[in-house]
Amino acid sequence: MATKEIRVGLIGYGFMGKAHSNAYRKVNQFFDVDYRPVLKCLCARTPEKAGAFAQRWGYEFVETDWRKLIARDDIDLVDIAVPNNLHKDIAVAAAARGKWVVCEKPLAMNAEQGRLMVEAVQKAGVPNMVWFNYRRVPAIALARQIIDEGRIGRAFHYRATYLQDWTINANLQQGGQTLWRLDAAAAGSGVTGDLLAHSIDTAMWLNGPITEVAAATETFVKERTHAESGKMQPVGIDDACMFLARFENGSMGTFESTRYARGRKNSNTFELNGSDGSVHFNLEDPQWLDFFEYAQKQSGMKVEDHLAGWRRIHVTNTEHPYMDHWWVPGCTIGYEHTFINALADFLKGVQTGQAAQPDFQSALRTQYVCDTVLKAARNHTWEQVPQV
Ligand SMILES: NC(=O)c1ccc[n+]([C@@H]2O[C@H](COP(=O)([O-])OP(=O)(O)OC[C@H]3O[C@@H](n4cnc5c(N)ncnc54)[C@H](O)[C@@H]3O)[C@@H](O)[C@H]2O)c1
Question: What HEC string does 135-185 produce?
Answer without folding.
Answer: HHCHHHHHHHHHHHCCCCCCEEEEEEEEECCCCCCCCCCECCCCHHHHCHH
